[in-house]
Amino acid sequence: MNDEAIARHLRIHGRVQGVTYRASMVAEATRLGLAGWVRNRRDGSVEALAQGGSPAVQALIDWARRGPPQARVERVDVAETEPQALPPFEQRATA
């Protein structure tokens, strides 16, 4: 499997705010060694940008479809994006 860096933009829909989704995603992404960020959106969704090796990014996407136990994920939209200079995975302010 190719471990070259890839980047994916995620938009997570459902009951994903107020259920430790962002903090849990930071912990999972950090465990996977990914760069990027996660933030709440004013429309009630959660948005994230994950970058790293393909297997690790896919593992985070798989995790995002479940989320933490309190979350009820309805849908995860995933889009390819170009890798860029990103910090270690962090939680950002609502956009």
TrEMBL record:
Assigned keywords, A-Z: Hydrolase
Domain Acylphosphatase-like positions: 7-93
Annotated organism of origin: Ottowia testudinis
EC number, as in UniProt: 3.6.1.7
Coiled-coil regions, chain positions: none
An MF annotation (GO) of this entry: acylphosphatase activity
Name the record gives this protein: acylphosphatase
Catalytic residue positions: R22, N40
The keyword Ligase belongs to this UniProt entry's keyword annotation: no
PROSITE patterns, A to Z: ACYLPHOSPHATASE_2, ACYLPHOSPHATASE_3
Family: Belongs to the acylphosphatase family.
Keyword Hydrolase (UniProt): yes
Top-level division of the source organism's lineage: Bacteria
Top enzyme category: hydrolase
Catalytic function, reaction form: an acyl phosphate + H2O = a carboxylate + phosphate + H(+)
Pfam entry (one): Acylphosphatase
Transmembrane segment boundaries: none
